[in-house]
User: Which sequence fits this backbone?
């Protein structure tokens, strides 16, 4: 937690966030929600609902609005040009495709990239990188070439790189996409172990049930429902109305029981 941040300060606060892409496509329409420190929140919704656009706003990857009423706050800090560096340190973003995120010729250098930017070097850097590789189950992978790893291993290297900067929030775009069942299981177990708040956009409804304390259902750029995953996802008419389905995991449950 950032120095001086009160325990009750939400990790993320989004206030009436609207956004249209430059050529005019509307993507978000007055979206508001909070994520408490340490809370895991899932974003569900059909393709084109606005999930990725929302995630991109959480660490300032889309143009920040001019000063005024802030629409995104991270640990109470408004997302504004002057705070971007701090906010990007506090919000770790896992891209859907790890190849968009891996930057260095070795796993060690890749995980070290963030901490080096923060001024770490020598033995403390080595310790930090090794601890993060251990945390994601990739102990001893430091000399490997990221491009030669499996998709699941690449995702874990990316996660280690985020953890190395000690983020307060992890923002994850479809973390289990492209993984086989074992890879999915391992990644979910890993995410479950990681500290900090998480915002996870996913089509993996079982992940939402197993990991998230709360889910937000997004469609047409708006939050159309929110609640505990098992409640929301058991509501078959709601799921079908928004291009989703009730997961098999919940087939024996009735809505709101
Ligand atoms: P999701 O992640 O839920 O699939 P997106 O946030 O990607 O949804 O998309 C929301 C809307 O914004 C869609 O209408 C999509 O076509 C549009 N959109 C997404 N990315 C871009 C972009 N880079 N340029 C223009 N329009 C975009």
Assistant:
């Amino acid at each position: 937690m950032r120095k001086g941040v009160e325990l009750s300060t939400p990790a993320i606060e989004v206030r009436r966030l609207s956004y249209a892409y430059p050529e005019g496509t509307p993507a978000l329409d007055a979206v508001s929600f909070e994520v408490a420190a340490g809370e895991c929140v899932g974003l569900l919704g059909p393709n084109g609902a606005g999930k990725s656009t929302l995630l991109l706003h959480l660490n300032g990857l889309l143009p920040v609005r001019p000063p005024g009423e802030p629409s995104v706050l991270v640990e109470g800090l408004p997302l504004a040009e002057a705070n971007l560096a701090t906010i990007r340190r506090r919000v770790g973003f896992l891209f859907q495709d790890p190849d968009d995120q891996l930057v260095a010729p070795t796993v060690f250098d890749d995980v070290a990239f963030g901490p080096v930017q923060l001024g770490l070097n020598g033995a403390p850097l080595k310790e930090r990188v090794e601890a993060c590789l251990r945390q994601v189950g990739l102990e001893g992978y430091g000399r490997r070439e990221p491009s030669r790893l499996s998709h699941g291993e690449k995702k874990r290297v990316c996660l280690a790189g985020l953890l190395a900067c000690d983020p307060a929030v992890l923002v994850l775009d479809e973390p289990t996409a492209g993984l086989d069942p074992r890879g999915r299981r391992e990644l979910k177990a890993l995410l479950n172990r990681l500290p900090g708040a998480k915002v996870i956009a996913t089509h993996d409804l079982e992940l939402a049930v197993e990991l998230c304390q709360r889910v937000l259902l997004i469609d047409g750029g708006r939050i159309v429902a929110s609640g505990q995953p098992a409640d929301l996802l058991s509501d078959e008419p709601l799921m079908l109305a928004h291009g989703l389905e009730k997961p098999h995991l919940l087939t024996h449950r009735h809505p709101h029981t």
